[in-house]
Amino acid sequence: MNGVLIIDKPGGMTSHDVVNRVRRILQEPSVGHLGTLDPLATGVLPLVTGNLTRLAQFYLASEKTYEGVIRFGFATDTYDSDGEAADAPHEVQVSLEQLRELSTRFVGLIEQMPPPFSAKKIKGVPAYKLARRHQEVALKPVQVEIRQFEILAFEGDRASFRARVASGTYMRSVAHDMGQQLGCGAHLQSLRRTSLGEFDLRQAHTLEDLEAAVRDGRSEELFIHPRLLLPEFPCVTATVETAALIRHGRAVNLPELSHARQVKVFAGQRELIAIATRIAGTLFHPKIVLADTQTT
Question: Does residue 36 lie within any of the structural domains?
């Protein structure tokens, strides 16, 4: 089964847990995800199945949007509410206006320290494994981009927010850093991803939805139509002869798309068989072949 499926990830599961669950539900061994979500987080988790797992390389830099809640008053060792308190509670004396002013300092290209409990690797070992063993986690700041960060409301010790960020940004670190700058500590209480790339919550299904669809024999209805994938790449429908060449990795002429750099090549309306890159003129070479070569 080749396709892209958007799961509304529940809290308390890792992204890998979701992948394993979907493998069992679909009885499909080849399933991957596009963009990890922490166990605490919920929301948009795109999954790729079958040959379309090869599309993952095109989503490494996808923009993401989030909604969530930051709790002020104390930091945690994981920078979110799944962790242990890292210090004693502090009284929170801050206004909505102060938080909104502070939030502007995080917009744009910034240097950010990843959380110690993260998948960032130190000499090949994920940081969270070292942190769990209470070993030193010597991470280095990385440059990330926050394109929008809006404090929506503030009540008691909790602030709700909306953010739009480039890949690699940790909202946990944003919450932690805000608490440090205010001197009262803070952590991410909840987080929901509302979009990743071209995918959003309107296309998302729960794991229970997927199980029911498989039982009813309508699981294909839940998958994203392949012509909606990678909207920045034009679509072309190959002739039978051209499709046969592409399936075997051969370069082909696509005169109707002479000005495109990369294109999605289809056999019929739904079968995405390749992503092709223009070599010169109208000549395109398959960057990745997504169809089985034995298919005719």
Answer: yes
Residue 294 belongs to a domain: no
Q: How far apart are CA 109 and CA 9, in angstroms?
A: 29
Q: Round to whole Å and give the CA distance between 234 and 277.
A: 11
On whether residue 52 sits in a domain, the answer given is yes
The residue from 8, 17, 38, 82 that is catalytic is 38
- Contact (CB, 8 A) for 166 and 145: yes
Domain hosting 284: range is: 228-289
Q: CB burial class (10 A; 0-12, 13-18, 19+) of residue 271?
A: middle
The SS3 call for residue 226 is helix
70 and 56: one domain? no
pLDDT, tens only, 116-165: 765 554 445 444 444 455 545 556 788 999 999 999 999 999 999 999 99
Nearest to 287 by CA among 258, 253, 251: 251
Counted domains in the chain: 3
Residue 38 a catalytic site member? yes
Place of tokens 């004396």: 93
My answer on whether 155 and 119 are in the same domain is yes
